[in-house]
TrEMBL record:
Keywords: Allosteric enzyme, Glycogen biosynthesis, Glycosyltransferase, Phosphoprotein, Transferase
Subunit structure: Part of the GYS1-GYG1 complex, a heterooctamer composed of a tetramer of GYS1 and 2 dimers of GYG1, where each GYS1 protomer binds to one GYG1 subunit (via GYG1 C-terminus); the GYS1 tetramer may dissociate from GYG1 dimers to continue glycogen polymerization on its own.
Family statement drawn from the similarity comment of this UniProt entry: Belongs to the glycosyltransferase 3 family.
Origin: domain of life: Eukaryota
Ranges of Low complexity composition bias in the record: 634-668
Gene: Gys1
Biased composition, class Basic and acidic residues, residue ranges: 618-631
Enzyme Commission (EC) number: 2.4.1.11
Function: Glycogen synthase participates in the glycogen biosynthetic process along with glycogenin and glycogen branching enzyme. Extends the primer composed of a few glucose units formed by glycogenin by adding new glucose units to it. In this context, glycogen synthase transfers the glycosyl residue from UDP-Glc to the non-reducing end of alpha-1,4-glucan. Transfers the glycosyl residue from UDP-Glc to the non-reducing end of alpha-1,4-glucan.
GO biological process: glycogen biosynthetic process
Acidic residues: compositionally biased ranges: 594-617
Gene3D superfamilies, per database record: Glycogen Phosphorylase B
Protein name: Glycogen [starch] synthase
Chain residue ranges for the region called Disordered: 568-674
Species, as recorded: Cricetulus griseus
Length: 674
């Protein structure tokens, strides 16, 4: 089954132009999803971050519709009065019939209704069954059957054409839900998916080829101050290091300045998310680092929520011991400082033999004795309810990564989402990502992949796969993704063992990089954030809405799709300066000298490979065009000419994103940091 991509579906230049301006003053957009102000998964992030750019286009005529939950209303919704009498009458009518939070408008506007996933798809089917004058769009972010099939360890992508979909759905007891999803896909005027890989999946499982691919974006915040995101990395890394000091007390026999932090995060789908491949690659990486006597240490975090009953006592004890040592050191430091101050006041140099007395040494000895530990540092930070059968823990026992002193790869399984209020690791997810060095997401089933996208906008390199929407998107728009810190693992055309070997190669190569190379790579990664900004990717959704209007109201809107040739568009070229891979650099030895770690000629070393951050950034900015929104559908009917508002009122169950910063050049190379 080929995985060829169509530029007209997935490249920015493949969006059609619209000859005349269409002012949505007499049109209304409803976006319907179960995750409106109701955080369940990635669709919540799509809607929450996209609301700003959609609101700028539609003004007060944009509404989000979702389930009414007390928690969502209290924490994510600002209750407002309906801005129009038509909406007020509609909501009053729904309320009187027992519906918590559509023909009440006398002017009969053009209505566009966009439904996300099968949970909202029943509304789309009813709109078409009752012949309502509504332009409908259905977006599947991942097919229901596809997710179940991949979780069942089948050879999914090589057998897409051969599945008996009714039989497979029935055997997995999801037949009725599958039928709803398939009906919504066929009833919609426009059917979209979030990536080309999912488009192929939908064509075979839902039996309809998507009309357009609508990639997921983010609201990208650009830093105005030079080096700012590099400073944030250093600050966040320091928070992680404090946790590591406590977690590995008694076995802290490795240099934290030569320690790299890798992580994987997401739903606990052991095979779908690639946790199995990651663990196997870590075992092989541990072997390579040991046999090559590398001074580099890797701490790999698994942030995947699982069933637990509380924190691990030994883990909590580690943080308590760390805090006790810190308090002891401060106590001794204050006494030392006081004696030094008094000695200097009388004009004499202190007698160093009298600066610390026997009591001070006793306190310090007790503190050191408290750090003694007979057991290895725990792998899991919590008490698991199904410890004996947990896939991650079972695999760790098989490969033998027990955080021993001989291991150069340490593993920490944190089976709970991160929170800044946690007594164990008090950081939120964004801060944690910024403090890590590499995100590893070797997914087998990943329709888009927000986790590597979030790494990219924060300037953190990541590993994705050619079976993820994000990985395919980056391969299409970047000539050499690895040069920009986007490593694409081949899980489509390689065996599982070969994929593990390739991932091990990526990880070992990353461990060989000097600090200087990691800084340069983070700068390049952060520059790619423009590609993932809704200011660009929002155009896909705009095109889908125009297509739906033309199909639903052909007498008033026209739409003429066209193909673009492969020479159109843009691709980031490979940077011409310092190679990102140690295999191509003279800093290729796993044994790095102090001169390599701290170049003598400035933070990057004037006598090393040529690197000009401003020159590279300028070239990259030329390779991505400014966000030129496609002109809207031509309209033969007359509409009002009043200017739209830049705000949006989405009703009582909506969530709005904060405005993004204007596009601006990104930061240059920061100070020398790990």
């Amino acid at each position: 089954m080929p995985l060829s991509r169509s530029l007209s579906m997935s490249s920015l230049p493949g969006l059609e132009d619209w000859e005349d301006e269409f002012d949505p003053e007499n049109a209304v957009l409803f976006e319907v999803a179960w995750e409106v102000a109701n955080k369940v998964g990635g669709i919540y992030t799509v809607l929450q971050t996209k609301a700003k750019v959609t609101g700028d286009e539609w003004g007060d005529n944009y509404y989000l519709v979702g389930p009414y939950t007390e928690q969502g209303v209290r924490t994510q919704v600002e209750l407002l009065e309906p801005p129009t009498p038509e909406l007020k009458r509609t909501l009053d009518s729904m309320n009187s019939k027992g519906c918590k939070f559509l023909a009440q408008n006398e002017e009969k506007p053009y209505v566009v209704a966009h439904f996300h996933e099968w949970l909202a798809g029943i509304g789309l089917c009813l709109c078409r069954a009752r012949r309502l004058p509504v332009a409908t769009i259905f977006t599947t972010h991942a097919t229901l059957l596809g997710r179940y099939l991949c979780a069942g360890a089948v050879d999914f992508y090589n057998n897409l054409e051969n599945f008996n979909v009714d039989k497979e759905a029935g055997e997995r007891q999801i037949y009725h839900r599958y039928c709803m999803e398939r009906a919504a896909a066929h009833c919609a005027h426009v059917f979209t998916t979030v990536s080309q890989i999912t488009a192929i999946e939908a064509q075979h499982l839902l039996k309809r080829k998507p009309d357009i691919v609508t990639p997921n974006g983010l609201n990208v915040k650009k830093f105005s101050a030079m080096h700012e995101f590099q400073n944030l990395h250093a600050q966040s890394k320091a928070r992680i290091q404090e946790f590591v000091r406590g977690h590995f007390y008694g076995h802290l026999d490795f240099n934290l300045d030569k320690t790299l932090y890798f992580f994987i995060a997401g739903r606990y789908e052991f095979s779908n998310k690639g946790a199995d491949v990651f663990l196997e690659a870590l075992a092989r990486l541990n072997y390579l680092l040991r046999v090559n006597a590398s001074e580099q240490t890797v701490v790999a975090f698994f942030i995947m929520p699982a069933r637990t009953n509380n924190f691990n006592v030994e883990t909590l004890k580690g943080q308590a011991v760390r805090k006790q040592l810190w308090d002891t050191a401060n106590t001794v430091k204050e006494k030392f400082g006081r004696k030094l101050y008094e000695s200097l006041l009388v004009g004499s140099l202190p007698d160093m033999n009298k600066m610390l007395d026997k009591e001070d040494f006793t306190i310090m000895k007790r503190a050191i004795f408290a750090t003694q530990r007979q057991s290895f540092p725990p792998v899991c930070t919590h008490n698991m309810l199904d410890d004996s059968s947990d896939p991650i823990l079972t695999t760790i026992r098989r490969i033998g990564l027990f955080n021993s002193s001989a291991d150069r790869v340490k593993v920490i399984f944190h089976p709970e989402f991160l929170s800044s209020t946690s007594p164990l690791l008090p950081v939120d997810y964004e801060e944690f990502v910024r403090g890590c060095h590499l995100g590893v997401f070797p997914s087998y089933y990943e329709p888009w992949g927000y986790t590597p996208a979030e790494c990219t906008v924060m300037g953190i390199p990541s590993i994705s796969t050619n079976l993820s929407g994000f990985g395919c998107f980056m391969e299409e728009h970047i000539a050499d993704p690895s040069a920009y810190g986007i490593y694409i693992l081949d899980r489509r055309f390689r065996s599982l063992d070969d994929s593990c070997s390739q991932l091990t190669s990526f990880l070992y190569s990353f461990c060989q990089q000097s600090r200087r190379q990691r800084i340069i790579q983070r700068n390049r990664t952060e520059r790619l954030s423009d590609l993932l900004d809704w200011k660009y990717l929002g155009r896909y959704y705009m095109s889908a809405r125009h297509m739906a209007l033309a199909k639903a109201f052909p007498d008033h809107f026209t739409y003429e799709p066209h193909e673009v040739d492969a020479t159109q568009g843009y691709r980031y070229p490979r940077p011409a300066s310092v190679p990102p891979s140690p295999s191509l650099s003279r800093h290729s030895s796993p044994h790095q000298s102090e001169d390599e770690e701290e170049p003598r000629d400035g933070p990057l070393g004037e006598d090393s490979e040529r690197y000009d951050e401003e020159e590279e950034a300028a070239k990259d900015r030329r390779n991505i065009r400014a966000p030129e929104w496609p002109r809207r559908a031509s309209c033969s009917s007359s509409t009002g000419g009043s200017k739209r508002s830049n705000s949006v009122d989405t009703g009582p169950s909506s969530s709005l994103s904060t405005p993004t910063e204007p596009l601006s050049p990104t930061s240059s190379v920061g100070e020398e940091r790990n």
